[in-house]
Design brief:
alpha+beta; Beta-Lactamase; 2 domains; six-stranded antiparallel sheet
């Protein structure tokens, strides 16, 4: 006696078709991204990657299409020198295990400096059903731009630090943005050692305490906060150590004002100093 029976698997077939269509849609979407994408399923095998991953990792498409495991993937990256060279292989294998655990929790994020001079940003993120996604982005241009910008800032700071005049620059909100070495020495100030912003009012109070002759400090404070035009104001003052300085206040760029203190050797502080305006 033979018994035949049939079970409707339409729902399963439809689910598998929907999954395939979803994966194809993802692949088409990620194909145009400049960020390399590698998604590993719950078994730790590569389930999806985009063309950018091939370009960034130099891994053969055939190798990726063979669905390597996460360990094999990173092992090949190491062989291709597309990730920082580990100091020892055993420690590196342990680190990769930590990478997988961190990516599962969404905590993995590193910057890789490669031997080629390129810099990659690598992030690990959890995906539904136990999958893990790694995103690899070439940030070499941004890093180079940041380094060049930092070098220019350091050069500008070094150049102003050799100038004998004291400079302090304030923003439109009245916060000190910069001062040079001469200013720090002149007013015995170390902005780096403070945990709060130094304001125009703070600075005027410091200048007031460090001088012995009256000065139009209210006008100075107003001028430092006045962004209406490039007019320069100048006045002389005498410090507690009897040195005489000339203070100039002017707008240097829209939203920034400068207080400049320069030596006035041989000049006697006036009895009733005033503020002179220069158009």
């Amino acid at each position: 006696m033979t018994i035949y029976h049939a079970t409707c698997v339409s729902a399963v077939a439809e689910a598998e078709l929907a999954q395939r269509n979803f994966v194809q849609t993802l692949a088409k979407t990620f194909a145009h991204l400049s960020i390399g994408l590698a998604i590993f399923d719950r078994r730790g095998q590569l389930a999806l990657f985009n063309p950018a991953l091939v370009d960034l990792t130099s891994l053969p498409a055939e190798f990726l299409a063979a669905r390597p495991t996460i360990l094999s993937f990173f092992d090949q990256l190491r062989e291709n020198r597309r990730m920082p060279e580990p100091k020892d292989y055993f420690g590196w294998r342990q680190k990769i295990a930590g990478v997988i655990a961190a990516a599962t929790d969404g905590r993995y994020e590193e910057t890789w400096s490669l031997e080629s001079g390129q810099t990659y940003s690598v992030k690990g993120r959890p995906h539904p059903d136990g999958a893990i996604a790694f995103l690899i982005e070439d940030i070499s241009a941004e890093v180079a731009l940041t380094r060049n910008y930092r070098a220019e800032l350091e050069m500008g700071q070094a150049l102003l630090d050799v100038v004998e005049d004291g400079f302090a620059v304030f923003s439109s909100s009245g916060i000190m943005m910069f001062c040079n070495a001469a200013y720090r020495t002149m007013w015995d100030l170390m902005p780096e050692s403070t945990f709060v912003d130094i304001t125009v009012a703070d600075s005027v109070a410091i200048w007031r305490r460090g001088t012995t002759t009256p000065a139009p400090w209210e006008q100075v404070e107003t001028q430092l906060l006045d962004l209406g035009g490039p007019r320069m104001r100048a006045f002389r003052l005498q410090l507690t150590d009897e040195r005489v300085l000339t203070c100039e206040v002017r707008q240097i760029v829209p939203g920034m004002t400068l207080a400049r203190f320069r030596g006035a050797a041989g000049i006697t502080a006036p009895e009733n100093p005033g503020m002179a305006a220069a158009e």
